[in-house]
Amino acid sequence: MISFSKYHALGNDYLVIDPAELDGELTAAHIRLLCHRNFGVGSDGILLGPLPDAEAAFALRIFNPDGSEAEKSGNGLRIFSRFLHDRGLVGGEEFHIATAGGTVTARVTDGGRTVRVDMGRVSFRSSDIPVVGDEREVLDETLEAGGEQLVFSAATIGNPHCVVRSGVASGERARRLGPLIENLPIFPRRTNVQFIEILDRSNMRVEIWERGAGYTLASGSSASACAAVARRLGLCDPRLTVHMAGGSLEIVVSEEFEIRMTGPVTHVAEGNVHEEAFAGGECDG
Hints:
By secondary structure, the protein is of the alpha+beta class. Helix content is 16%, strand content 41%.
Protein backbone atom coordinates (compact mmCIF):
# COMPACT_ATOMS: atom_id res chain seq x y z
CA MET A 1 0.00 0.00 0.00
CA ILE A 2 1.32 3.45 -0.95
CA SER A 3 0.14 6.60 0.81
CA PHE A 4 -0.01 9.85 -1.14
CA SER A 5 -1.05 13.48 -0.96
CA LYS A 6 -2.48 14.99 -4.15
CA TYR A 7 -2.19 18.67 -5.07
CA HIS A 8 -2.54 20.69 -8.23
CA ALA A 9 -0.92 23.94 -9.32
CA LEU A 10 -3.01 25.53 -12.08
CA GLY A 11 -4.30 22.10 -13.09
CA ASN A 12 -0.82 20.55 -13.19
CA ASP A 13 -1.32 17.77 -10.62
CA TYR A 14 1.20 15.74 -8.65
CA LEU A 15 1.17 12.96 -6.10
CA VAL A 16 3.53 13.63 -3.18
CA ILE A 17 4.94 10.48 -1.59
CA ASP A 18 6.97 10.58 1.60
CA PRO A 19 9.79 8.01 1.29
CA ALA A 20 9.62 7.44 5.06
CA GLU A 21 6.16 5.92 4.50
CA LEU A 22 7.20 3.56 1.68
CA ASP A 23 7.60 -0.16 2.41
CA GLY A 24 9.97 -0.70 -0.51
CA GLU A 25 11.38 0.86 -3.67
CA LEU A 26 9.24 3.11 -5.84
CA THR A 27 9.88 1.63 -9.28
CA ALA A 28 9.29 3.09 -12.74
CA ALA A 29 6.43 0.60 -13.16
CA HIS A 30 4.85 1.87 -9.93
CA ILE A 31 5.17 5.45 -11.15
CA ARG A 32 3.57 4.72 -14.52
CA LEU A 33 0.61 3.01 -12.84
CA LEU A 34 0.15 5.64 -10.13
CA CYS A 35 0.07 8.42 -12.75
CA HIS A 36 -2.31 6.56 -15.10
CA ARG A 37 -5.71 8.25 -15.28
CA ASN A 38 -7.59 4.93 -15.64
CA PHE A 39 -5.59 2.26 -13.84
CA GLY A 40 -4.04 4.40 -11.10
CA VAL A 41 -4.72 7.58 -9.17
CA GLY A 42 -3.90 9.86 -12.08
CA SER A 43 -1.36 12.68 -12.09
CA ASP A 44 1.18 14.60 -14.14
CA GLY A 45 4.01 13.22 -12.03
CA ILE A 46 5.32 12.00 -8.69
CA LEU A 47 7.16 14.07 -6.07
CA LEU A 48 9.27 11.88 -3.79
CA GLY A 49 10.33 13.69 -0.63
CA PRO A 50 11.41 14.98 1.74
CA LEU A 51 14.83 13.41 1.29
CA PRO A 52 18.02 14.30 3.19
CA ASP A 53 20.59 16.66 1.70
CA ALA A 54 23.99 17.80 2.91
CA GLU A 55 23.28 21.50 2.35
CA ALA A 56 19.56 22.15 1.75
CA ALA A 57 16.88 21.66 4.39
CA PHE A 58 15.03 19.29 2.06
CA ALA A 59 15.71 17.34 -1.12
CA LEU A 60 13.19 16.26 -3.74
CA ARG A 61 13.10 13.78 -6.63
CA ILE A 62 10.64 14.44 -9.45
CA PHE A 63 9.29 11.74 -11.78
CA ASN A 64 7.37 12.05 -15.05
CA PRO A 65 4.34 9.85 -15.82
CA ASP A 66 6.46 7.70 -18.16
CA GLY A 67 8.72 6.76 -15.23
CA SER A 68 11.63 8.98 -16.23
CA GLU A 69 13.15 11.41 -13.75
CA ALA A 70 12.93 15.18 -14.25
CA GLU A 71 15.58 17.60 -13.07
CA LYS A 72 13.25 20.36 -11.93
CA SER A 73 9.58 21.39 -11.94
CA GLY A 74 8.33 24.80 -10.93
CA ASN A 75 4.79 23.64 -10.20
CA GLY A 76 6.18 20.54 -8.51
CA LEU A 77 8.35 22.69 -6.26
CA ARG A 78 5.40 24.88 -5.30
CA ILE A 79 3.34 21.79 -4.54
CA PHE A 80 6.13 20.19 -2.50
CA SER A 81 6.55 23.44 -0.56
CA ARG A 82 2.82 23.40 0.26
CA PHE A 83 3.13 19.75 1.34
CA LEU A 84 5.97 20.66 3.72
CA HIS A 85 3.85 23.50 5.09
CA ASP A 86 0.83 21.21 5.56
CA ARG A 87 3.03 18.71 7.42
CA GLY A 88 4.23 21.47 9.74
CA LEU A 89 7.82 21.16 8.51
CA VAL A 90 8.02 24.82 7.38
CA GLY A 91 6.21 28.01 8.33
CA GLY A 92 6.40 31.43 6.69
CA GLU A 93 10.20 31.52 6.52
CA GLU A 94 12.36 30.98 3.42
CA PHE A 95 13.80 27.49 3.01
CA HIS A 96 15.89 25.58 0.48
CA ILE A 97 14.99 22.55 -1.63
CA ALA A 98 17.64 20.56 -3.51
CA THR A 99 16.70 19.00 -6.87
CA ALA A 100 18.66 17.30 -9.63
CA GLY A 101 18.38 20.62 -11.51
CA GLY A 102 19.78 22.74 -8.68
CA THR A 103 18.76 24.14 -5.30
CA VAL A 104 15.91 26.64 -5.04
CA THR A 105 14.60 28.96 -2.33
CA ALA A 106 10.90 28.83 -1.49
CA ARG A 107 8.45 30.60 0.78
CA VAL A 108 4.83 29.67 1.54
CA THR A 109 2.26 32.42 2.17
CA ASP A 110 -1.50 32.90 2.33
CA GLY A 111 -2.01 29.86 4.57
CA GLY A 112 -0.32 27.63 2.00
CA ARG A 113 -2.39 28.72 -0.98
CA THR A 114 0.39 30.80 -2.56
CA VAL A 115 4.04 29.81 -2.96
CA ARG A 116 7.01 31.82 -4.22
CA VAL A 117 10.06 30.02 -5.61
CA ASP A 118 13.39 31.52 -6.64
CA MET A 119 14.02 29.10 -9.48
CA GLY A 120 17.65 29.94 -10.24
CA ARG A 121 19.37 31.38 -13.28
CA VAL A 122 18.40 30.64 -16.88
CA SER A 123 21.15 29.82 -19.38
CA PHE A 124 20.79 29.99 -23.16
CA ARG A 125 24.16 28.27 -23.80
CA SER A 126 23.96 25.21 -26.02
CA SER A 127 26.29 23.14 -23.83
CA ASP A 128 24.22 23.85 -20.72
CA ILE A 129 20.79 22.95 -22.18
CA PRO A 130 22.07 20.83 -24.12
CA VAL A 131 21.60 21.47 -27.86
CA VAL A 132 23.94 19.92 -30.42
CA GLY A 133 26.24 22.02 -32.59
CA ASP A 134 28.75 24.78 -32.01
CA GLU A 135 28.91 26.45 -28.61
CA ARG A 136 26.48 29.40 -28.69
CA GLU A 137 23.44 31.04 -27.20
CA VAL A 138 20.53 29.29 -28.88
CA LEU A 139 18.36 32.27 -29.83
CA ASP A 140 16.01 32.71 -32.81
CA GLU A 141 17.18 29.64 -34.68
CA THR A 142 15.04 27.48 -36.98
CA LEU A 143 13.96 23.85 -36.88
CA GLU A 144 11.56 21.72 -38.91
CA ALA A 145 8.75 19.65 -37.40
CA GLY A 146 5.60 18.31 -38.98
CA GLY A 147 6.50 19.95 -42.28
CA GLU A 148 6.72 23.41 -40.68
CA GLN A 149 9.69 25.74 -40.30
CA LEU A 150 9.67 27.11 -36.76
CA VAL A 151 11.67 29.86 -35.06
CA PHE A 152 12.82 28.78 -31.61
CA SER A 153 15.12 29.63 -28.75
CA ALA A 154 16.40 27.13 -26.19
CA ALA A 155 17.06 27.57 -22.50
CA THR A 156 17.68 25.68 -19.28
CA ILE A 157 16.71 26.47 -15.72
CA GLY A 158 17.98 23.07 -14.61
CA ASN A 159 15.90 21.29 -17.27
CA PRO A 160 15.79 21.81 -21.07
CA HIS A 161 13.25 23.97 -22.91
CA CYS A 162 12.54 24.76 -26.57
CA VAL A 163 10.56 28.01 -26.85
CA VAL A 164 8.79 28.45 -30.20
CA ARG A 165 7.64 31.91 -31.32
CA SER A 166 4.29 30.95 -32.76
CA GLY A 167 2.25 34.12 -33.27
CA VAL A 168 -0.92 32.71 -31.69
CA ALA A 169 -0.28 30.08 -28.99
CA SER A 170 -2.37 27.03 -29.89
CA GLY A 171 -3.04 23.95 -27.81
CA GLU A 172 -3.65 21.99 -31.00
CA ARG A 173 -0.16 22.84 -32.31
CA ALA A 174 1.39 22.00 -28.95
CA ARG A 175 -0.23 18.55 -29.05
CA ARG A 176 0.66 17.96 -32.70
CA LEU A 177 4.19 19.35 -32.88
CA GLY A 178 5.28 19.01 -29.25
CA PRO A 179 6.10 15.28 -29.35
CA LEU A 180 8.00 15.72 -32.61
CA ILE A 181 10.13 18.57 -31.26
CA GLU A 182 10.66 16.84 -27.89
CA ASN A 183 12.48 13.98 -29.61
CA LEU A 184 14.47 15.84 -32.28
CA PRO A 185 18.13 14.70 -32.43
CA ILE A 186 19.33 18.26 -31.70
CA PHE A 187 18.07 17.76 -28.12
CA PRO A 188 20.10 14.82 -26.78
CA ARG A 189 18.20 14.75 -23.47
CA ARG A 190 14.85 15.47 -25.15
CA THR A 191 13.21 18.78 -24.31
CA ASN A 192 10.13 20.50 -22.95
CA VAL A 193 8.37 22.48 -25.69
CA GLN A 194 6.49 25.80 -25.41
CA PHE A 195 4.57 27.83 -28.00
CA ILE A 196 4.49 31.48 -26.96
CA GLU A 197 2.32 34.45 -27.90
CA ILE A 198 3.41 37.91 -26.73
CA LEU A 199 0.29 39.85 -25.74
CA ASP A 200 2.07 43.01 -24.55
CA ARG A 201 5.18 43.96 -22.57
CA SER A 202 3.70 42.49 -19.38
CA ASN A 203 1.68 39.52 -20.60
CA MET A 204 2.42 36.32 -22.49
CA ARG A 205 0.31 33.30 -23.45
CA VAL A 206 1.98 29.86 -23.50
CA GLU A 207 0.89 26.37 -24.61
CA ILE A 208 3.05 23.52 -23.31
CA TRP A 209 4.16 20.04 -24.30
CA GLU A 210 6.09 18.57 -21.38
CA ARG A 211 8.89 16.06 -21.81
CA GLY A 212 7.79 12.68 -20.48
CA ALA A 213 4.28 13.91 -19.65
CA GLY A 214 2.62 15.28 -22.81
CA TYR A 215 0.26 18.24 -23.16
CA THR A 216 0.20 20.10 -19.85
CA LEU A 217 -2.19 22.75 -18.53
CA ALA A 218 0.60 24.64 -16.77
CA SER A 219 4.30 24.39 -15.98
CA GLY A 220 6.35 26.60 -13.68
CA SER A 221 9.71 25.83 -15.25
CA SER A 222 8.22 26.36 -18.73
CA ALA A 223 6.78 29.73 -17.69
CA SER A 224 10.17 30.66 -16.25
CA ALA A 225 12.06 29.67 -19.40
CA CYS A 226 9.58 31.46 -21.68
CA ALA A 227 9.78 34.66 -19.65
CA ALA A 228 13.58 34.55 -19.72
CA VAL A 229 13.70 33.97 -23.49
CA ALA A 230 11.24 36.80 -24.14
CA ARG A 231 13.29 39.10 -21.89
CA ARG A 232 16.55 38.08 -23.58
CA LEU A 233 15.01 38.89 -26.99
CA GLY A 234 13.73 42.25 -25.73
CA LEU A 235 10.06 41.30 -26.12
CA CYS A 236 8.89 41.93 -22.56
CA ASP A 237 9.55 43.81 -19.32
CA PRO A 238 11.25 42.19 -16.29
CA ARG A 239 7.93 41.58 -14.52
CA LEU A 240 5.20 39.77 -16.42
CA THR A 241 2.22 37.45 -16.16
CA VAL A 242 2.45 34.13 -18.01
CA HIS A 243 -1.02 32.87 -19.00
CA MET A 244 -1.42 29.13 -19.54
CA ALA A 245 -4.40 26.85 -20.13
CA GLY A 246 -4.67 26.14 -16.39
CA GLY A 247 -4.14 29.70 -15.15
CA SER A 248 -1.46 32.33 -14.65
CA LEU A 249 1.89 32.73 -12.90
CA GLU A 250 3.71 35.90 -11.95
CA ILE A 251 7.33 35.87 -13.12
CA VAL A 252 10.13 38.34 -12.38
CA VAL A 253 13.31 38.13 -14.48
CA SER A 254 16.41 39.78 -13.01
CA GLU A 255 19.22 41.42 -14.99
CA GLU A 256 21.17 38.17 -14.56
CA PHE A 257 18.15 36.14 -15.77
CA GLU A 258 17.41 34.75 -12.34
CA ILE A 259 13.74 33.84 -11.99
CA ARG A 260 11.26 34.47 -9.18
CA MET A 261 7.97 32.62 -9.72
CA THR A 262 4.79 33.11 -7.65
CA GLY A 263 1.56 31.18 -7.98
CA PRO A 264 -1.21 29.16 -6.33
CA VAL A 265 -1.35 25.61 -5.01
CA THR A 266 -4.51 23.63 -4.20
CA HIS A 267 -4.69 20.62 -1.86
CA VAL A 268 -6.87 17.97 -3.54
CA ALA A 269 -6.78 14.72 -1.57
CA GLU A 270 -5.08 12.33 0.82
CA GLY A 271 -5.23 8.61 0.09
CA ASN A 272 -3.78 5.15 -0.18
CA VAL A 273 -3.20 2.95 -3.21
CA HIS A 274 -4.04 -0.68 -2.49
CA GLU A 275 -1.54 -3.39 -3.42
CA GLU A 276 -4.21 -4.95 -5.65
CA ALA A 277 -3.73 -2.06 -8.10
CA PHE A 278 -0.20 -3.33 -8.81
CA ALA A 279 -1.17 -7.01 -9.14
CA GLY A 280 -1.58 -6.84 -12.90
CA GLY A 281 2.08 -6.00 -13.43
CA GLU A 282 3.60 -3.08 -15.32
CA CYS A 283 1.22 -0.48 -16.74
CA ASP A 284 1.74 -0.03 -20.49
CA GLY A 285 -0.81 2.76 -20.99
